[in-house]
Amino acid sequence: MHVPAKVEYAIQAATELAAASPALVNAERIATAQQIPPKYLQNILAQLRNAGLVESHRGGTEGGYQLARPAD
Known about the structure:
By secondary structure, the protein is mainly alpha-helical. It has one domain: Arc Repressor Mutant, subunit A (Orthogonal Bundle). The protein has helices spanning about 5-20, 25-35, 40-50; strands at about 55, 65. The chain has a two-stranded antiparallel sheet with strand order 1-2. Helix 1 (about 5-20) packs across helix 2, helix 1 crosses helix 3 (about 40-50) and helix 2 (about 25-35) crosses helix 3. The protein is globular, with a radius of gyration of 11 Å. The N and C termini lie far apart (about 30 Å).
């Protein structure tokens, strides 16, 4: 069964967010930890945000992403 790269990267990003929950995680940290191209990850995170699975918070060093619901 072939899983598209975009789906695999979305799962990896969600896993990274779940591991850090409830803390905010910036996209750069996710990209580095999961070896996902940063620009591609931004697109994926935007789609996850639009789907209501991820929340984003602006704020330079204090901003980032988190799951919309508790990981458990």
